[in-house]
C-alpha cells in the first residue's frame, strides 16, 4: 500500500539515494527507485552497517499525496524516467538536485511549475549490490554539501546539519563550475585507466590534466565573464586527487559495473557549451569519445541533453 502522508521524496536508490535515506531517516522520506529496501549503510567508523527500511515506491507507482520537497539523488541515466515521474506526480514541486555535472536546470525549464534548486556535495560514496544481502552504500569520507537557499528560507524537510550549508544560487553556481572542472579531469581519467584517484597524478595519463583544465576554463570564462589562471586549477585538482587517493571515482564505478556514465553531463556539457561560444575543446572531445566507446550513453538521455546532435545509429557515439 502506498504511503499517504505528504513528505520529502528522494528520487533514486543508488549510492546517493541510499545514503540520504539513511541521513534523513528521522524525517520519514519516501524513496522512489528500482531497488527496494532494506539498505545497508556502512559508516567509516564502524565495521557493522546500519540497516534501514525507508518507505519505498517503484518508479511506476503513483504518489498518493503531493511531495513537500524532492531530492534528486540519481545518476543522469535516470533523467528520462525522472521527467516522466515528475510530470505525473509532482509537476509543481520544489526540486533539490545533488546530481553530478551541469545542465539539469535547462531540462527542468520544461516544467514551469517546478522550482529547481541545485546543490553540490563532496561526500565520497561507494555503491554495493551483493547477490546475497541488502543493497548498500559505503561512506568513504564525509565531505560537505552546499544547496541553493529557497526564497522562503531553509526548508523544514532538511535538518540543520553542520556539514550542509544553504547559499545563494550565485554562490552555488560558482561551486558547481569548480566541481565540474574537477570532475572533468578526475572522472574520465580514472575511468580510462581503471586506477584510484590517488594514482592519477603519477600516471602518464595525467599529462591530459592541464589541457583538459585549460580548455574547460575558457568555457567557464565565457559563461561567467571571469577568467581563472590555469596553474592554480591544476594544483587544486591534483591536491583533490591526492586527498581522495583511496576513492574510485563515480565514473570508474560505473564503468566497472557496466552502467552508463555521466560523461555527457560533465565533459559533454563543456563540449556543448564550447560549441555555443565557438570554442574548440579537442582534449575533452577525445576523452568523451573514448568513454562513450567503453559505456555508451543511452539514446533517450542523449536526446534530452543534445537533441540537435542525436547519436548515430550505426556505432558508438
TrEMBL record:
<dbReference type="Pfam" id="PF02558">
    <property type="entry name" value="ApbA"/>
</dbReference>
<dbReference type="InterPro" id="IPR013752">
    <property type="entry name" value="KPA_reductase"/>
</dbReference>
<feature type="domain" description="Ketopantoate reductase N-terminal">
    <location>
        <begin position="9"/>
        <end position="147"/>
    </location>
</feature>
<dbReference type="InterPro" id="IPR013328">
    <property type="entry name" value="6PGD_dom2"/>
</dbReference>
<dbReference type="InterPro" id="IPR036291">
    <property type="entry name" value="NAD(P)-bd_dom_sf"/>
</dbReference>
<keyword id="KW-0560">Oxidoreductase</keyword>
<keyword id="KW-0521">NADP</keyword>
<dbReference type="GO" id="GO:0005737">
    <property type="term" value="C:cytoplasm"/>
</dbReference>
<dbReference type="Pfam" id="PF08546">
    <property type="entry name" value="ApbA_C"/>
</dbReference>
<dbReference type="InterPro" id="IPR008927">
    <property type="entry name" value="6-PGluconate_DH-like_C_sf"/>
</dbReference>
<dbReference type="GO" id="GO:0008677">
    <property type="term" value="F:2-dehydropantoate 2-reductase activity"/>
</dbReference>
<protein>
    <submittedName>
        <fullName>Ketopantoate reductase</fullName>
        <ecNumber>1.1.1.169</ecNumber>
    </submittedName>
</protein>
<dbReference type="InterPro" id="IPR050838">
    <property type="entry name" value="Ketopantoate_reductase"/>
</dbReference>
<feature type="domain" description="Ketopantoate reductase C-terminal">
    <location>
        <begin position="172"/>
        <end position="293"/>
    </location>
</feature>
<dbReference type="InterPro" id="IPR013332">
    <property type="entry name" value="KPR_N"/>
</dbReference>
<dbReference type="GO" id="GO:0050661">
    <property type="term" value="F:NADP binding"/>
</dbReference>
<comment type="similarity">
    <text>Belongs to the ketopantoate reductase family.</text>
</comment>
